[in-house]
């Protein structure tokens, strides 16, 4: 026991390769030369990428004893001892080597001796997802005595590995202390994606719920842009969803679609942000692949049950985006179809009267001035990107939108006229009321004066 504690306390997870840090202490290092450090166990990690297993030469003593021991390795060693050999996680066996075989009596450190040492080491083989496999070194550093350097980028993977290797102290440190402090709105997307890759559904759902409950406060589309369509659908269907008002969800989904397309364009052209790339390399983060968005994804992300109303500021975006990428969805008919909801959003709001119809008038004038350039007025016009989307719409969508806008404009004009008449009636009633009040006060004042005069005469 004293030996194991001394080994772990003297280890620093990347240090001296066998040098003593203090008198009587022994520093073991899994990173050092396996022959020199006399490692007696090879941990082989497979990540399913087909590149072959990554071998880590470790010391059984540190992995099977103490508060940082691996219950998984303990079980493998016990099973191997019972069967007369070192049983691996994949069901094969390797003969254990004796101490006399690990030490060359003549201290001959030739390549042949080193290879013989490696071949005779016991093996434990295990499969973990690629995301988790990248953090095996940090796990071994922890087992060898280093303090865990936890961050948003590595916490999900280390939590997975702590559970897979049955290292309870580390699992508790991450799950009960670090994640409750670190998991909030702006880190929830990263936790959600990583946990989904690792099939840690408990952590994934926890992150999704936090994101859903506070989605109304999220205004940075870059935080969501690497979320897969499947995860976005889960977010939209979350019972705790609070996107902010009737239009909120349509604005958040549009924000995600735009950010996603921007990222695809950047990756396609190879114009990566060097600063972000350096941060990712430092944190051992790799670019998440952007999965294609299908008709089914777009349909359910914009379904009428979850998105009953479309923001008038995003309606032209949805009409344009859907017509180009998902014509089958946009060809649906009925009041609940996305196209009908977009038409209703544009024609049923003051935005139509104040922005869209004047834009159409400007287009008509522009065509006239193109034929007569000398008549073109010299004035600057406000550039509105959302209205420019109208020019990219298919002709049939333009016609339907114009028809809907005319009906909506007439309705809005009638409502404004009624509101104006009602306001005029209210003002007139107030004026009559004031006139009657003034008349009554004047009569009361006159009567009071007459009464006072009569009293004086008497």
Summarize the topology.
Layout: H1 2-10, E1 41-46, E2 54-58, H2 60-64, H3 71-83, E3 86-87, E4 93-94, H4 99-102, H5 111-120, E5 122-127, H6 130-133, H7 136-143, H8 155-164, H9 168-182, H10 188-197, H11 201-213, H12 229-236, H13 248-269, H14 274-282, H15 295-301, H16 315-325, H17 327-330, H18 338-347, H19 350-371, H20 385-388, H21 395-457
Helix pairs in contact: 8-9, 10-11, 12-15, 16-18, 18-21, 19-21
Q: Could you describe the 3D structure shown?
A:
The protein is mainly alpha-helical and 458 residues long. It has helices at 2-10, 60-64, 71-83, 99-102, 111-120, 130-133, 136-143, 155-164, 168-182, 188-197, 201-213, 229-236, 248-269, 274-282, 295-301, 315-325, 327-330, 338-347, 350-371, 385-388, 395-457; strands at residues 41-46, 54-58, 86-87, 93-94, 122-127. The strands form two sheets. Strands 2-1-5 form a three-stranded mixed β-sheet. Strands 3-4 form a two-stranded antiparallel sheet. The radius of gyration is 37 Å and the shape is elongated.
């Amino acid at each position: 026991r004293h030996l194991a504690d001394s080994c772990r306390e003297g280890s620093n997870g990347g240090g001296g390769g066998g040098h003593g840090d203090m008198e009587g202490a022994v520093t073991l290092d899994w990173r050092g030369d396996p022959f020199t450090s006399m490692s007696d166990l090879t941990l082989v990690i497979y990540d399913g990428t087909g590149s072959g297993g990554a071998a880590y030469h470790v010391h059984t003593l540190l992995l099977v004893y103490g508060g940082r021991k691996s219950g998984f390795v303990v079980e493998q060693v016990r099973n191997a001892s019972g069967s007369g050999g070192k049983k691996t996680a994949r069901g094969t066996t390797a003969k254990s080597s004796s101490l006399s075989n690990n030490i060359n009596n003549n201290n001959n450190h030739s390549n042949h001796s080193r290879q013989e040492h490696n071949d005779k080491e016991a093996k434990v083989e295990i499969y973990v997802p690629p995301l988790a496999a990248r953090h095996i070194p940090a796990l071994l550093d922890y087992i060898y005595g280093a303090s865990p350097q936890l961050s948003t980028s590595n916490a999900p993977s280390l939590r997975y590995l702590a559970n897979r290797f049955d290292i309870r102290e580390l699992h508790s440190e991450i799950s009960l202390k670090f994640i409750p402090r670190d998991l909030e709105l702006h880190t929830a997307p990263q936790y959600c994606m990583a946990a989904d890759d690792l099939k840690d559904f408990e952590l994934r759902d926890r992150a999704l719920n936090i994101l859903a409950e506070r989605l109304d406060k999220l205004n940075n589309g870059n935080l969501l842009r690497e979320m897969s369509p499947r995860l976005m659908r889960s977010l939209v269907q979350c019972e705790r969803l609070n996107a902010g008002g009737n239009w909120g969800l349509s604005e958040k989904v549009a924000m995600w679609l735009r950010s996603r397309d921007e990222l695809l364009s950047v990756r396609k052209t190879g114009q990566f942000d060097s600063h972000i790339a350096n941060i990712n390399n430092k944190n051992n983060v790799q670019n998440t692949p952007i999965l294609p968005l299908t008709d089914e994804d777009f349909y359910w992300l914009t379904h009428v049950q979850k998105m009953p109303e479309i923001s008038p500021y995003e309606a032209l975006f949805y009409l344009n985006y859907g017509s180009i990428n998902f014509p089958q969805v946009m060809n649906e008919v009925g009041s609940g179809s996305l196209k009908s909801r977009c038409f209703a959003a544009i024609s049923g709001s003051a935005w139509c009267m104040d922005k869209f119809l004047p834009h159409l008038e400007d287009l008509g004038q522009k065509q006239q001035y193109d034929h007569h350039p000398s008549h073109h007025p010299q004035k600057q016009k406000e550039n509105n990107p959302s209205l420019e989307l109208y020019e990219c719409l298919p002709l049939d969508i333009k016609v339907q939108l114009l028809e809907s806008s005319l009906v909506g404009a007439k309705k809005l004009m009638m409502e404004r006229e009624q509101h104006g008449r009602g306001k005029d009636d209210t003002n007139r009633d107030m004026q009559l009321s004031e006139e009657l009040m003034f008349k009554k006060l004047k009569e009361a004042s006159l009567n009071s004066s007459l009464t006072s005069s009569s009293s004086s005469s008497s």
